[in-house]
Design a protein that fits this description.
alpha+beta; two-stranded antiparallel ribbon; 4-stranded antiparallel sheet; 8 strands; Rossmann fold; globular; 4 helices
């Protein structure tokens, strides 16, 4: 798996989340993203309550992502999309959001937009709470952050992102 950079079997784990005095059990299934495992992914989709589709900020919506998305449509699996690898050379968040709309024929409604990309990626703007999340310690891989007002030079982009004009 590590050599090829792909998941080759389904992996499952359980975690618990406490929210407003309620305990929730969350079962996470990581499915293979390779075409050879389409049947295994389809089996997993039959039992899911929801899915998180992860798209690379460089590669965008790839053919196998389209296949899995159609499978999720078939089983009416609600999903959210997450764009990762914003720190990579060639990262383009807005291109990925456009691809979600165009290739997957889905309504993409951003709830966060990135602050910068590639070497200048430093955080995200939370469009729900209207705040900026800025990471300040590269060693902790995003676990240390400050929640601050949206910087003046990004307020217009945040407003456009919220209303879906720029995406």
């Amino acid at each position: 798996e590590q050599e090829r950079g792909i998941t080759i079997t389904c992996a499952a784990t359980t975690t618990f989340w406490k929210y407003q005095n309620n305990d929730y059990k969350i079962n996470i299934i990581d499915t293979p993203g390779h075409v050879d495992f389409t049947v295994e992914v389809e089996r997993s989709l039959r039992v899911l309550d929801g899915a998180v589709a992860i798209f690379c900020a460089v590669g965008g919506v790839e053919p196998q992502s389209e296949t899995v998305w159609r499978q999720a449509d078939k089983y009416n699996v609600p999903r959210i999309a997450f764009v990762n690898k914003m720190d990579r050379v060639g990262a383009d968040y807005y291109s990925v959001v456009s691809q979600i709309k165009d290739k997957l024929k889905s309504v993409a409604v951003p709830i966060q937009i990135p602050m910068g990309s590639e070497d200048s990626f430093k955080g995200v703007i939370d469009l729900i709470d209207n705040k900026a999340v800025i990471w300040y310690d590269d060693e902790t891989m995003g676990t240390n952050y400050n929640l601050v007002e949206i910087p003046e030079d990004l307020k217009e982009e945040a407003e456009l992102g919220f209303f879906g004009v720029v995406v």
